[in-house]
Amino acid sequence: MGGDPDRSATVGEHGRTGVPDPYGDRALLTPAMTRGHDAAADSELRPLLRYLEAVVATRRAPVHTAVAFNAVYFGYDLRGDGYGGSPLRPDDFPVITLGECAPALPVGAMMCVATGSDPLYAEIVHREGAHPEVGDLGDVPAWVSGAPAGAEGPGRPEGDAAPRRRELLIPDLHAFGPALSLSPAQLHRLRTRRRWINEDGHVVVDVRYPSPAAARRDDLTAYADHLLSTARKQLLSPFVPVCLADLVGSTSDIALRAGLLGLLDTVRGVLASSAALRTWGHYAVTRASLTECRRDTGPLGGDDLRSLAAAVEHAATPARRRHGLTAPVTVYTAIGPRLRQFPGAKELLKGVGYAAAVCRANMVLADVVREDSDRGLFENGSRITLDDAFESGGVWRSHYPGDATEPGDPLAPAGCGWASTLPMPPELEAEALPVDLPLADDASLGTGELVRNDAQEIVWRSPLRLAHLIEGRFPLHPAAARGLRRSHGPRHTSRLELDHPGRTLDEREAIQDVVAEHTDETARLMGIRWPRDFFPGLTLELRWLRSGTVIRAATTLLTEPVQIDDRVIEHCYDPRVLTREDAPGSDRLRDSAAGLNPRQLVMRTVRRCGLLTLDGHALLDRSVLPNAVYGDRPGRSQVAALESAVAELLAEGLLERALGSRDAWGQPHHPAREGQSIIPLIGYRPVRRRVIRPWGGTGADDDGLLALQVVAGHLRRLRPGCSPSEAQRAAFRAHCRVLGKADGWELPYGYTFVTEHIRGR
């Protein structure tokens, strides 16, 4: 591991006949895949499909989408060496220490368990909740099923800004090949001591999340966040088969995140499309292994799984009574603890065998529900549904009488257990949403990102907000605010130096004397004269040298300019802030809906009040539009004008139709959730158009066509017998520094480096 220069010599096929190699002549990941599964051609997907099918067939644990991504991105060797020949560096892995609260690690994360002797290096292949109130027989208190992280009891949600949750991590201790795997005797000693791993070889940790929102993220979003932060070095290693930065042609965070999510979607789609695989959520197993399990008559084989399905089906069925009616009964069953009760199951549930058994059990239960019931309603009157996909291997809900509940998708986790303990709110009507929202205080948008914090300087990125432009201010990162306040007091004069590549700033704008103001609640720079072409959402990178009061702020050029609506954008920006705060009625002097026509009011309301996605889409419940614009009692003529404006905007493609759902509390959701009422949505989609420029042009308004294309620096395989020049070796080291790597990295054997250049089209 760590980038063996001879690794690139392994080209062509693996020992398995016809299975492509991530390090082979043909890359398994392509630029088209960064846009998602549907954007890639079948000819590109077929080699990836063959390789991932071989990975699933080789590994003992069910293969999660994140683990499958690791295999193809870092180069998992199918001949027994695992990641042993990959560029992964064990010293970069996050460490779990006995007795300490662990960082939140998603499935797919590489980790190190610090033991009393040799460390344990592992890849997390399965993760689930390990709530202490779940019984040994799988009996679950109702409030635990579907409860958010940090919940303390029935109807008592998380009360902490950084909630905790106990989790069970299933590590693959042999993922890195024999060189980093402990011997059976060493593992036996660790399991016997039960300090760092339990007797099953699993890790039980108390995890603290940075926020409740972070604890609610789905698996793939959480893994993308992990790779772009904690595991950024391994993600951007130039020694991986194909680096993400090369695939997307950029190193900006926005481009990297979008490309990474696209690759994860491609891997998910490939696993789901395979005729040889079965999937449960994000986990994939071979159909052959599932068939073999059903035929097995031993522990946790077909007989035991059918017995489990029958037990869940009849868990809530009351005993027959001669007189009177039976009261409704609800029972929650956790799969993981319930599997441990079968005779002979103990040894099979050790190591990654637990993940395989849990996945197979859930698949069998899902098949029984699909084949033997009417959307979960069985002939005995019970309704069986999946209620929680995370806690204790999955929690299934058995309810009698089942016909008393509204049918929905029985396999969509509904969290009915937790919801049943919450106080039922009164009937909610469509409330008017104020058009002029105080968006500058909206903590969900553009909160900033700390880039570096060391003894010399503090660097952070943050988007410019509309209120910052109007009021001539900008917030300080808490780390910088603390340092400035300690050194210079609660209010002092600082110098702000602005750098706006591609534009010449006025002297009064380039260097300004501003006031740094610190209170117990806020820390900000006041009295800023923002350049005229600065707009809401423009990303600034700020740098404070600890030795003085100078703060430098710089924008970053995009690889290519884009046009969104009427705005030409040449610098990095936050699409969420742009959608919210660049809506009609917003400019550098005011933010008001007064004087807008119906079309503008519709666009403003959808962008300001709609459900907001990470890439800047906004979706609004169409039925609440009149109330959101005009208040509780809009006039008939006002409603008619809005409907006419909506029809025009839809016809012109400025808005689009979508479907969502509304839950029991009146909250809208997108995409629509099974079992909820379907509602029509209208959505604003920020359309990115490429800006075409003339030869030698520098402005967005120049006429003519752009005949130049910027090609990012990348590795290229050499012909046999050839070697790179010293200039290319030096250029590659410089490229590594741009990616945030250490000095001194050398080109891998058999490759040269092609520097960034411009070519004609």
Structural commentary:
This protein has five domains: 258 residues, no CATH class; 124 residues, no CATH class; 106 residues, no CATH class; 113 residues, no CATH class; 53 residues, no CATH class. Helix 2 packs across helix 8 and helix 10 crosses helix 12. By secondary structure, it is an alpha+beta fold. The N terminus is likely disordered.
Key terms for this structure?
five-stranded mixed beta sheet
SS-derived structural category: alpha+beta
**Major beta sheet, strand line-up:** 12-13-18-19-15-16-17-14
Give the C-alpha Rg: 29 Å
What low-confidence regions span 5 or more consecutive residues with pLDDT below 50? 3-15, 321-326, 424-444, 694-708
Tell me the major beta sheet. 8 strands, mixed
Q: What general outline do the C-alpha atoms trace?
A: globular
Report strand %.
Answer: 15-25%
Between the first and last Cα atoms, what is the distance in angstroms?
40 Å
Assembly of the depicted chains: single chain
How many β strands by DSSP?
Answer: 31
- The average pLDDT is 83
What helical percentage do the residues reach? 25-40%
What number of domains? 5
